[in-house]
Amino acid sequence: MSRAAPAARRAATGLVALLAVPTLAGFLDRLSWLFEPASFFRLQYAVLLGAAGVAALALRRAGLAAVAVALAAVDLAAIAQWHAPRNPVAPPGAPTVRIVAFNVDGGNRRYGELAPLIERLRPDILGLTELTPPWARAAAAASPTVRPRRLVPQRDVYGMGLLSIDPPASVEVRRFPAGGPIALVARFDVAGRALTFVLVHVHTPFAGSVHERELRALADTRPRLGRRLVVCGDFNTVPWSAQLRAFADAAGLRDSHSGSWPAYSWPSWSPLLRVPLDHCLVGDGVSVRRHAFGPSGGSDHFPLVVDLALTDLDG
Fold first, then answer.
1. 56: how many CB neighbours lie within 10 A of its CB?
2. pLDDT band at 11; cut points 50, 70, 90
3. What is the 3-state secondary structure (H, E, C) of the chain?
4. What is the pLDDT averaged over residues 224-240?
5. How confident is the model at residue 12, as a pLDDT?
6. Is the pLDDT of residue 259 over 80?
7. How far is C-alpha 184 from the geometric centre of its chain's CA atoms?
8. 285 and 310 in contact (C-beta within 8 Å)?
């Protein structure tokens, strides 16, 4: 036996044991937000556990390989359970709207890329988060057709702006909860059908329980936001987290990525670390026809592009 074999076996065992901790701890996010970050990188855990399983087989550690594969399957199952399709089919001729939600990254200085990005993506409604004063100036001059409707720049990362082709009936600056970051609530008439669009930037769970409180406050406001509702933005959590699922269930919303494998939106600079943090959640009377991500334009996020069809409301 090679002298390196014992060291390799210890390394493989250590890697499996190390990855078992966040794999299992991620399920405790149902009990407390403290465990939510452990659920973020489940795909990465699964890939590394699969590699550890192959290494264990090569080292003739069948038991260790079985444990690694089982843990990888647990991670993939946690992601896959979120993919059950729940999207109603829109009838032919239903009015459509394209929404783009983009975290521009307050530290990003590539302001000149916003105009060609808008020209390329052609949104009907564009929500910008992390809107700083320079980004607000760029947004104000970016497009002759997608015009600013409400720009609320901040010097921190919680400014935001709403642009659209057609003017909304109203735009409000709200906070969920009262002391939370701003959100924009806009009401549109799309071919005679009312649509409420809410743009959010939720605190990261690394900031503490404020993340969970913001989602709960937004869900509590749901009855006053209208039945045909779309909530988009940077949620700073993954779609399979207990907190986001609880919010979606309480608010009666579906993630636009539901029913398909999610594209991973952050960080744009590292495919190996990428996780889906940007979402659009939709309510009754809204059918998702397409979802994709556009180019980053220098941001650490990719812009989320969602094509929606507005359907009749039951009752």
1. 24
2. confident
3. CCCHHHHHHHHHHHHHHHHHHHHHHHHHHHCCHHHHHHHCCHHHHHHHHHHHHHHHHHCCCHHHHHHHHHHHHHHHHHHHHHHCCCCCCCCCCCCEEEEEEEECCCCCCCHHHHHHHHHHHCCCEEEEECCCHHHHHHHHCCCCCCEEEEEECCCCCCCEEEEECCCCCEEEEEECCCCCCEEEEEEEEECCEEEEEEEEECCCHHHCCHHHHHHHHHHHHHHHCCCCEEEEEECCCCCCCHHHHHHHHHHCCEECCCCCCCCCCECCCCCCCCECCEEEEECCCEEEEEEEECCCCCCCCCCEEEEEEECCCCC
4. 94
5. 83
6. no
7. 17
8. yes
Q: What's the number of CA atoms in the CB half-sphere (13 Å) around residue 101?
A: 24
pTM for this prediction: 0.92
Q: Mean pLDDT for the chain?
A: 91
Q: Which amino acid is at 182?
A: I
